[in-house]
Please model this.
Amino acid sequence: MKYKLLAASILATLSTSAISATYQLSELGTLDNAKFSYVTDASESGHIIGFANGLYNLPIDISYIDFDDSLIKSAYDTTESNYEQIDKVITFTLDDIQNNEAVLTNPDAHSFMVSFLSSRSSNYEYQKQNQFIGVRFTESGVVEQTLFDEAAIDYDGLTRSTFNLYNAVSEDGVSVGWGSAPYDKVSFTPEGEDDAETWFTNEFVERAIVISADGVKVSLAPEFDDYGGTSRANDIIKTNSGYTVVGNASISIPIEIQEDIDESCDNEDSPVSACINLNNSTSSQGLFNKSAFKWELDESLNVVSVENLGLALTPDEDEVEDDNFVSTAFAINSKGTIAGYSNTRYYRNDNSIISMPVYFKNGEVVDFIDQEDGWENGIASALNDNDVVVGYATKVIESSFRNKFFYHDVETGNTVFPNDYFTGSSSVANDINNQGYIVGEGEVGGSDSSRDKAAFIYKIGEDKITNLNDLLPCYETDGETDYPYTVVEANVINENNEVFGVATKTVEKRDTLGGVVTDINGNIEFETVAVAVKLTPLENGEIENCAPPEAEIYERSSASISWLALFLLPLIGIRRVFRF
Model:
């Protein structure tokens, strides 16, 4: 749980013999110009945020492209060959794109250009695109929340070139996230050349942002801002004097990385910004040493104080370390305890650096997962007001690295890895409320290369998780049509035990221009999409048994789970005020 509990909730009792549906699922909506929607946070007062992906009608700028270049010709030939293999006739030419505005009217041409540009995301001589945008879910619909994007010069609308992560919202609707600056198309002449080239550059790669309830934006720039620096905002809480925001920010550049920049980013062959972006994308942890930070803001969103929360290791000042260091804060509770992760030293070899779950409290960075038990990675994603931290850690299980969700009691120092769906299943915990209910998702089956996952609910003190899909109806209201949703992520749980997450469902397939897709015979095609959902406990719901008698899948939990009886009822009380 990321937000302050305003009042305790009261649970009633219910007979444990119930065997029917216990949740009502409702979609939160999807933008008209997007295929997918996701929830990242919800406050007790009803503010819900998230992001959309799979944007339709992404703008394509062809004004700078040389259509005689071998790269785009080769890409076209490959596309034509792929069409032939599925007996599909290609409906556009490169000349149609260049001269006949095919990207505006022909979905195949538009899809080709989107794919072509995507495959050159690390080549800054091509237009940059990004399909992730922030959204707010409101009673009147889904509304886009821009972070740093701005109106394009070469086409109508926003540039759609910015990376956006919209992460958390406070009780009164002030929200935070982080993103990149929009890309500008600039003219650059390499040293020794006569002809200018078109390049795409931007001012910074990552910048934290705070957005007031009425839309006023305040960026949180890092103190170390060489090459733009970096900062991220992951959580926010309302305080008596304003707001507390946590995330991370750049603090320096390692010597070896700076030497590489000085040698390669000399503004001779490419603009410095493009070179910096390329170096940042190819480094495993980016360019910078980054540390978890806490910002205190007043009611007007002015920054009052900034605190570096530190790392779980001490860099060796006598030697040049091989890599840069990173720590970050993901969540803060009403006590000021902060959950996140930090680089730390591997217990078998001090020269090896790994990332482990930590919490930040009273000026300390506490790395609490025992590496000697085989854990080698992980994060702490959330915590409640009782200082119980949740997240996941990673170890080798059945010959492969698997994530396993945990909860950790700061007061007692006790860490528990509950049983999840099965031994080889990877699982993560995303949120916890003050009653000790944890939500997340875990793998439920499939091949090692492609595993299905399902959202879960777990009560601290019990010995197994419950698949949230087992608490939904088996059929639509007609009693015959299979229930259309599978809940795959549970990201937030509030003090009413309402769960916000992501479900999949099957819909008519849409092309990149938003039109319905048909096969070569004219039949409508279908696809699976992700939708943001809210699960509301039902007062008199009963668990249904959807599996056929011969099925031996994961059995539903009913009368045998004592806490489930309490969980089925709505809670009475005032709501409280989550994570990517």
